[in-house]
Amino acid sequence: MHLHRVLDTTVPGNPVAEEAVRNVLLGVMDPELGDNIVDLGMVQRIEIDPLGGDVDVTISLTTSGCPLRAQIMKDIKRRVAGLPGVAEVRVHFGEMTTEQKKNVMARARFKARDNALDTDIPATTRIVAIASGKGGVGKSSVTANLAAQLAQRGLTVGVLDADIGGFSIPRMLGVEGRVQGEKDKTGRARFAPLEKPIGSGLLKVMSMGSIEGTGEDQAIMWRGFMLNRAVQHFLEDVAWGDMDYLLIDMPPGTADIQMGLARMLPRTEVVIVTTPTLAAQQVAARAADMARKGYLRVAGVVENMSASVAPDGTRYAVFGAGGGERLAEQLGVPLLGSIPLDPAVAAGGDAGEPAAIATPQSPAAQAFAALAECIVTEAIPLVEMVTCTARQFFKAAGLLNPMHNDKTRSPFP
Ligand SMILES: Nc1ncnc2c1ncn2[C@@H]1O[C@H](COP(=O)(O)OP(=O)(O)OP(=O)(O)O)[C@@H](O)[C@H]1O
Ligand SMILES: [Mg+2]
Q1: With 90 as the cut, is the pLDDT of residue 396 above it?
Q2: What does the DSSP assignment read for 31-61?
Q3: Which of 2.70.70.10, 1.20.1250.20, 3.30.300.130, 3.30.1380.10 is the CATH number of 2-116+384-405?
Q4: pLDDT above 70 (res 85)
């Protein structure tokens, strides 16, 4: 039944609800103003063609010539197009009145939503949850290797291990120290994530296994209703600082944490990991359905444990073939990569040096490099940050200097 809903991406006469469109727009950030376009009051109009399913979204910008416009438009299209019942998505831009601009500025400074997360994660960070329907398909291995590969490209990559009870990230990345609490500028205690430089890039890691007094045994106690609180703690009380990507390694089983993330961080995008077998593909479809129920964008599918290729060219499809492709097709999302079954992955995970960098010639490492390339250039591109709207407005209104003197209230750090 779940599967059925996912399949019905365009149902004639069953148009998408305006509320659903608004919900996915919560995931579109104005990186300069530091909040999503809904809470900033930038969404002026949503029009839905009840017959064809076309959606027209009108956005008010502070200045119509904003260079961020192209990125905001792409993000809107990517999110809204993923909703069932949506045909074409068109984005229109208008310019705000002076009064509207003042309101937006006020909202940018004081978080609009009461339940908005008080987090240190920059608005320019792309947040990617690595999820699957069932356990053991390689979520953590994909997270660790993708993170290492992105860092290798010179990026700063956060890794949040949301597998509270069964964390494996510290071991896989070889980051097994314990975190230190430190006070930030406002005097609030925060944990500094554990850091590991890779090439010219940097990993910032936070896991239940990194906190003093939570060995593998004690962590089991966190299972159940505490799970979401623990994830929220990681989001709010960790001094994440600058990051290009934040990868979240999801625990097996989906509902709780995914729904929590959807509420806390609606801009999260989900990558579904599956193995090539039919059964895994069906469970994975359910995970994708769950993500979409929370209005999270499903960015694509990664097939793991795909056929391995022997040096003589023979392919060994131990777990079958084609599951990733079929799932991607069924979900209407791209297949981002296929990672072959490769002993280098398991060995790298045990050694704390992901195969992606420890054995760059291995088939898995090459597949991870291709996956990283696909993510950075296409599927979940880096956020562009050009200042335009707000700064220009402030300058024009003669407000720039006072704002800058009052650092605590300025939306510009
Ligand atoms: N492509 C691969 N080739 C070989 N071994 C792999 C591959 N991917 C994962 N593994 C191995 O499979 C096991 C399970 O992987 P992993 O822990 O990443 O899965 P998971 O989905 O995170 O599991 P869980 O649901 O328990 O969190 C590990 O021992 C890992 O080393
Ligand atoms: Mg795992």
Answers
A1: no
A2: TTTTEETTTTT-EEEEEE-TTT--EEEEEEE
A3: 3.30.300.130
A4: yes
